[in-house]
Design goal:
199 residues, alpha/beta, Helicase, Ruva Protein, domain 3, Dna Topoisomerase Vi A Subunit, Chain: A, domain 2, 2 domains, two-stranded antiparallel ribbon, globular
Length: 199
């Protein structure tokens, strides 16, 4: 007869539903939660509930926020003439960590993927097009992932923007810092050559 504690199994099952979490990691997380005090468990559960109840999409850029407009869109120091289009809210954090970009963002919350049933209508494209209609934006930076879906999404959006005569650019791709050329694939090397800069 197998050892089974139903509440523990349910907790492991819930952790196992998280992306990238396998059965062993889910069990480790569940046992960790059980080692917490009741007040620590309550604080953990309250944080999840509060995040789910209070966080929603910024009415401008579709990034995550707990206010009507996110702190990036409401920052007067940001360059309002540039919009960087990304697939997910976590991509905004990646750009912000570089401290190199001072423009605005637009979060699509996905990429075009017919195999997964995701078309342009499932993305936040209407909101993006509405933002481009007032002649404030002079450049849209396509920062979708370098995948088939990301490339298809970037191409689709570029075609939509073209009649508006707004400059559209794509992130350069190439060899990562610390990488060896012998391990780079042909597509990466080709893009590195095309995106080379003068020294």
């Amino acid at each position: 007869m197998a050892y089974n504690v139903p509440p523990l199994e349910r907790l492991i099952e819930q952790f196992g539903r998280l992306p990238g979490i396998g059965r062993k990691t889910a069990a480790r997380l569940a046992y960790h939660v059980l080692s917490l005090s009741v007040s620590e468990c309550k604080a953990f559960a309250d944080a999840i509930t509060e995040a789910k109840e209070k966080i929603h999409f910024c009415k401008s850029c579709q990034n995550l926020t707990d206010g009507e407009v996110c702190s990036l869109c409401s920052d007067d120091r940001r360059n309002k003439a540039a919009i960087c289009v990304v697939e997910q809210a976590r991509d905004v954090l990646a750009f912000e960590r570089t401290r190199e970009y001072d423009g605005l963002y637009h979060v699509l919350h996905g990429a075009i993927s017919p195999l997964d049933g995701i078309g342009p209508e499932q993305l936040h494209l209407k909101e993006l097009m509405a933002r481009l209609g007032d002649d404030t934006v002079t450049e849209v930076i396509m920062a979708t992932n370098p995948t088939v879906e990301g490339e298809a999404t970037a191409s689709y959006i570029t075609r939509l923007i073209k009649p508006m005569c707004i400059k559209t650019t794509r992130l350069a791709y190439g060899i990562p810092v610390g990488g060896d050329l012998e391990f780079a694939d042909e597509v990466t090397l080709s893009r590195a050559l095309h995106g080379r800069l003068e020294l």
